[in-house]
Amino acid sequence: MAVLVAQAAAFSLPTAVPRPAPSALRPAPALLGGCVMCDSKPPMPPQQPPLDRRGLLVGSAKALLLPSLASLVSPASAFSLPPALSGLLGPPPDDGLRDTHALDVARMQGSLDKRRMEREERGETRKSEGVRKEIWGLVDDDSELAPLFLRLSFHTSGTYDQKTRTGGSQKGSIHYGKELNQADNAGLAQAVQLLDDIQKRHPEYSRADIYTLAGVHAVEMMGGPVVPWRSGRVDAKSNKEAIPEGRLPQPDKGTLPKTADHVREVFGRMGLNDKDMAALIGAHTCGGAHKQFSGYEGRWTPTDIRFDNLYYVFLTKKNLKYELGNVQTAPEGLEWTGLGKKQFDVYYMNDVFFMLPVDMVFKEDPKFRPYIDAYAKDQDVWFKDFSEAYGKLLELGTKDLRDDVVVAGVKGSFKTPQ
Questions:
Q1: Angle at 412 between CA 123 and CA 201, to 5 degrees
Q2: Is 388 exposed, middle or buried (0-12, 13-18, 19+ CB in 10 A)?
């Protein structure tokens, strides 16, 4: 859910501050659009990678470096320093963008290695491993695809209506222009094209399956929880099966009370509750927004290619300065058309981050706030609730799904590891 708003939808995965990596797979600009959570990004001037401030935000001086190191080094190589860390220990790298991408990839590889060893200990294998490796190959080339894939999975699933039993991820109808070209889905063409190419090499899975699997695997890559996933969705055959516009949540309905009512109406239509919504909005911890795609500009946290609870920490931290703003200026060399939309600029440690009006709903609403406080205090609690809510979201409107995880000598349904 959280993920759904980026551009027009309140919970889409916007892209983080642009840090392009070498990518022969990036499509032409005409394919890019923009929602908030992970809208595609314009070229930006080179810059040195930002200092990882997560440790300072949670109040531990040691955490400034140690959590990042720990997440980059898998248990099997705990005593060897990854080459990607050399830039942290010596002079600044000549190419800050390349170095930041290398750090992202090294951290994500460590997360995947950790989960692989956990599966081996449980005697588990996954039927989808070949597809997951290809998805990882794309992200290895461009780390910003991870939050973009997560956003796609939210947008293809968040259209479900439990009364009419239409929408959801069952048909993967976002593949077709009638749905893909909707304003809320701007920026997703890149992800759809790349994943469609993978599906052609793996016809045993539908496009709808791979759109959702890419989001699940992106969460795992970025250090998030294991999310239950099953296959067996059946693709739509034409534009006629596309979902009509207007089903995704919007980031602002004029006032915080009206926005809160809107969010509950949209997710209530899907059959989700306040706890689900509060857990899903945390996907805003990764990615960012760009004005030419969504009308918003910024990123929620410094750890924009990492799946952690820093978004909730920002929402609850008392010494952060929030200012209502309207983005009207563009980075040097770029020109915007029109005025920016209302957003909250968040000032911390000489950096500026942002929150959408819908984010402030979760900060201020008395029914949402207990969940926000709990997730800010304990990341494991959030991981558990997110895994359950996201897994539920991805299966709305589906039927006859097949288990992906196989346990040696056991035939049964997937159970999220504790």
A1: 75
A2: middle
Phi, psi of 243 (to 5 degrees): -85, 135
| Alpha-carbon gap, residue 108 to 308, rounded angstroms | 13
Catalytic residues: 155, 300
- Judging by beta carbons within 10 Å of its beta carbon (0-12, 13-18, 19+), is residue 338 exposed, middle or buried? exposed
Q: How confident is residue 415, by pLDDT bands cut at 50, 70 and 90? A: very low
Asked whether residue 237 carries a pLDDT value surpassing 60, the answer given is yes
Tokens standing for residue 292? 């030419």
Torsion of CA 245, 246, 251, 254, to 10 degrees: 130
CB 372 within 8 A of CB 385: no
> What pLDDT does residue 97 have?
62
- Going by their DSSP bridges, the two strands 402-403 and 298-299 should be labelled as unpaired
Matching residue, tokens 């990596």: 21
Q: Is 255 helix (H, G, I), strand (E, B) or coil?
A: coil
Report the b/e string of 101-129 with b at 16+ CB within 10 A.
bbbbbbbbbbbbebbeeebeeeebebebe
Least reliable range by pLDDT among 84-88, 276-280, 311-315: 84-88
Give dist(CA 293, CA 189) in Å, integer: 13
The two beta strands, 402-403 and 230-231, are antiparallel
